[in-house]
């Protein structure tokens, strides 16, 4: 279902009318294309006080943007606030960004680099936590399709003791058109070193070359977009969906040069059949299949409850356990699951769905560190907000319109926005990104 309002505000009379009425002014977002893979302008690198990490400039250079310390119209601004450890130090954050924030180009990016709030220094913890409120507020007021995020670099409290090197893939993603619908997010990196068992990247334009990726629920919607973006990044893709969706699945797989695997993910032998379809193992496993069976709890029969928990959560837990145990997910592998804003904020009529999606968040946070230690595998989740798919097209008009506008970018996201986030988790150099839940929601007001 097309967003007609976004189209209307893109025309001069529409813009005039909606401004006069005080209605939201969504800016058209620029997504990644082969012809325009980068933001259009330089990257302004600023520091609040003294930095507590090394390697920031090197990590920023991997963004493909021209890094400068002075720019009239930057496409991106990165503020290194890793050294901010006192309330007074927050003045440096204001002093650095206040003079330049207006000069940011439309559709621009602001990334604040911070560090993990300390459990044993409450002044440092206060100052670093303050950055979260700062970033979330700036995301809400910046407008014009621009986004603002906080990236926490681990171990940055000891000057010279931490490096921004591990932040490379994260900065590349956030400072590019690929993260168009991600705003107001806090990403906490781990200090993990790259897994020595994982194969090196031979082609930076296709970093997943040589890796096999399996995507569940890939016949349509977000899953089909994930399959497409992973194929673009060089992966051999296996697209899985229920046998009832075989025709649509085969069409999607053919279009992408992927292999179709018609299989109900809740089948007792699902993990075995996945392993059989990937004899060389899986480098990427994306749990995307999901269903809704909405009813208020008082009206919800047990079967509606059970089917949602089974598809959205239990089958994810079961297949993950079995595929990890069998060694099907290779070292350096990536598991990405799909949560939802409903799992964070809750939603009327969705006790079953929200429970299943909150369960995904629990799974990712608990398993991430252990899967990395035991198998060299990271486990992360995307939490989509309002994404334009068949699932949301079925939502009644007024609720749909509210869902679309109630975020800082005043519009719904596209399946590709979720897919780009999945692809960032899947990058071979995203080893330090683990146990994270990234909201792809345009900074939804729900659960904010
Ligand atoms: P969709 O309904 O368009 O696609 C889901 C796919 O999963 C379908 O092709 C379906 O056949 C498949 N599927 C369902 N049960 C399956 C099973 N047992 N085994 C294998 N495949 C199965 O939905 P979508 O909007 O593309 O959503 C994809 C994921 O994103 C879901 O997990 C959903 O909960 C989540 N999500 C979507 C939104 C949104 O706004 N669209 C928001 C938050 C989260």
Summarize the model shown.
The chain is built from 15 helices and 15 strands. The chain has 448 residues and is an alpha/beta fold.
The CATH architecture of the largest domain is 3-Layer(aba) Sandwich
β content, as a range?
15-25%
The poorly predicted ranges are none
List SSEs in N-to-C order: HHEEHEEHEHEEHEEHEHEHEHEHHEHHHE
Sheet with most strands: strand arrangement = 11-10-9-12-13-14-15
Question: Within the CATH hierarchy, at the fold level, what is the topology of the largest domain?
Answer: Rossmann fold
- Residue-averaged pLDDT, rounded? 94
CATH class categorisation of the largest domain? Alpha Beta
Describe the largest sheet: 7 strands, parallel
Distance between the termini: 26 Å
Helix content: 25-40%
SS summary, helix count: 15
Q: What Rg do the Cα atoms give?
A: 21 Å
The number of strands is: 15
Could you walk me through the main structural features you see in this protein, from its secondary elements to its overall organization?
The chain folds into 3 domains: 25 residues, no CATH class; 158 residues, Rossmann fold (3-Layer(aba) Sandwich); 229 residues, NAD(P)-binding Rossmann-like Domain (Rossmann fold). Helix content is 37%, strand content 17%. By secondary structure, the chain is α/β, with parallel strands linked by helices. The model has no long low-confidence stretch (mean pLDDT 94). The protein has a 7-stranded parallel beta sheet, with helices on both faces. The two termini are 26 Å apart. The chain is globular and about 60 Å long. It has 15 helices and 15 strands. α7 packs across α15.
């Amino acid at each position: 279902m097309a967003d007609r309002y976004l189209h209307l505000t893109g025309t001069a009379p529409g813009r005039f009318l909606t401004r006069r009425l005080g209605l939201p002014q969504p800016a058209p977002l620029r997504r990644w294309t082969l012809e325009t893979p980068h933001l259009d302008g330089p990257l302004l690198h600023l520091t609040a006080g003294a930095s507590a990490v090394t390697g920031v400039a090197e990590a920023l250079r991997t963004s493909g943007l021209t890094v400068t310390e002075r720019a009239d119209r930057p496409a991106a601004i990165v503020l290194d606030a890793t050294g901010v450890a006192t309330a007074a130090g927050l003045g440096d954050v204001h002093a650095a960004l206040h003079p330049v924030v207006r000069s940011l180009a439309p559709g621009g990016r602001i990334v604040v680099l911070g560090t993990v709030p300390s459990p044993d220094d409450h002044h440092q913890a206060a100052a670093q936590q303050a950055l979260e409120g700062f970033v979330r507020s700036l995301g809400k007021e910046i407008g014009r399709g621009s986004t603002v995020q906080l990236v926490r670099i681990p171990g940055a409290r000891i000057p010279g003791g931490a490096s921004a090197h591990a932040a490379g893939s994260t900065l590349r993603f956030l400072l590019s058109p690929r993260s168009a619908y991600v705003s107001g997010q806090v990403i906490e990196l781990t200090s993990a070193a790259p897994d020595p068992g994982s194969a090196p990247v031979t082609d930076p334009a296709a970093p997943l070359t040589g890796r096999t990726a399996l995507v569940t629920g890939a016949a349509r919607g977000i899953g089909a977009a994930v399959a497409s973006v992973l194929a673009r990044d060089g992966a051999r893709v296996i697209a899985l969906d229920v046998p009832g969706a075989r025709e649509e699945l085969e069409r999607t797989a053919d279009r992408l040069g992927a292999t179709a695997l018609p299989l109900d993910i809740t089948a007792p032998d699902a993990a075995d059949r996945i392993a059989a379809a990937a004899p060389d193992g899986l480098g990427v496993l994306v749990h995307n299949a999901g269903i809704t069976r909405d009813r208020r709890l008082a009206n919800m029969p047990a079967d509606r409850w059970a089917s949602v928990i089974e598809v959205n959560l239990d089958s994810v837990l079961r297949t993950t356990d079995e595929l990890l145990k069998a060694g099907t997910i290779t070292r350096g592998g990536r598991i990405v699951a799909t949560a939802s804003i409903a799992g964070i904020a809750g939603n009327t009529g969705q006790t079953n769905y929200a429970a299943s999606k909150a369960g995904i968040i629990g799974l990712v946070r608990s398993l991430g560190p252990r899967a990395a230690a035991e198998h060299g595998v990271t486990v992360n989740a995307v939490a989509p907000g309002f994404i334009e798919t068949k699932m949301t097209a079925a939502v009644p008009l007024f609720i749909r319109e509210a869902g679309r506008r109630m975020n800082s970018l005043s519009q719904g996201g596209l399946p590709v926005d979720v897919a780009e986030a999945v692809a960032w988790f899947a990058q071979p150099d995203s080893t330090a990104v683990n146990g994270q839940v990234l909201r792809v929601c345009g900074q939804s007001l729900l659960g904010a």
